[in-house]
Specification:
172 residues, mainly alpha, two-stranded antiparallel ribbon, 5 helices, 63% helix, 3% strand, flat
Length: 172
């Protein structure tokens, strides 16, 4: 029996790629801008920045490596494939071919589940980035520095075009 059969290798490679996509990468930098306090030297501000980045990483990295975030998008494709296979088998049984219906349903469920899983994965990474930014901002302001709040976007008033209203007058 050949252990390195091409079909087995392709299934193994797909499984490894699917599991690699489940890892949640912890944030490595803040997405907020910090400015030094008035009169603080650049060297002192860089030390504050480094210590606050370390502090935020220490808070967020255990959360990122936990079981829940790492599996936030992993179960959705499996559940989607199982549910799709069951629904496809029921529909296929009514049409006379339960096996083909199950295969089609499993494929469709896998695609839909993968999309849902990718969405959950993105939301988990965004939540970790928010937690990192909050910890960094709290630390930097505790050291006397400031966080730059970006200006709100200017929204222009919408231009509304209306057709002219015509009035007709009849002579008396």
């Amino acid at each position: 029996m050949n252990v390195f059969h091409p079909a087995r290798l392709s299934v193994l490679a797909c499984a490894l790629l699917a599991l690699a996509g489940c890892a949640v990468v912890p944030p490595s930098y803040p997405t907020v801008s910090a400015l030094p306090a008035k009169g603080k030297t650049l060297n002192a501000f860089q030390q504050d920045d480094f210590s606050c980045r370390t502090y935020a990483s220490q808070l967020v990295n255990p959360l990122a490596s936990g079981r829940s975030p790492a599996q936030s998008g992993a179960a959705a494709p499996v559940l989607g494939a199982a549910g799709g296979a069951a629904a496809g088998a029921l529909i296929g049984a009514g049409a006379g071919n339960a096996g083909a219906g199950a295969a089609i349903g499993a494929g469709a469920g896998l695609l839909l589940g993968a999309a849902v899983g990718a969405n959950q994965h993105g939301q988990t990474e965004a939540a970790l980035q928010r937690q990192y930014d909050n910890a960094y901002a709290q630390c930097i302001t505790a050291k006397g520095d400031t966080i730059v709040v970006p200006p709100a976007p200017v929204v222009a008033a919408p231009v509304v075009y209306a057709r002219p209203v015509y009035y007709y007058y009849a002579p008396y």
